[in-house]
Amino acid sequence: MSSVGRYLKKHTEALVKDVGIEAACTLTGKSKATLGRYYSDYDEHADRFIPADAVAALEEAASYPHVTAALAELKGITLSFDERRKNAKQEGGVNSDVIALAQRFSMLMAEYHQSIEDGVITANEAKRLLKETLAIQQVLIDMKLHLEEEQG
Question: I need a surface site. Which of 108, 109, 133, 139 has the fewest CB within 10 A?
């Protein structure tokens, strides 16, 4: 088995164990044996990997997106983990996103104005600016998802 295959299987196992084997079976509709094959390092299971829909279902319930993060790392991509973990779907769609974007941008500009008053942006001020920038990025991602959803 390739090192990439072993790496993905290791992270698949971490994902299943994060959720719990019983819950993983319920969420994916797969048996314990099938899930076990997805992360088994035995040669006879070397070509068996967890389907993307099962990864999505498990990562929704997990504390961390283990497999998605592993795939990103393999391609040299850095992910930003959104810890908001909403309990309910956001209502309002694109219109609410535009309002949220305007509010976030306003907060970013206020932070920037306050930070630059003395001509120097300190490390703490930079952290606050970064936090606002990431919040804007998340609003844009939400907007993208809502637009794709409306497009059908």
Answer: 109
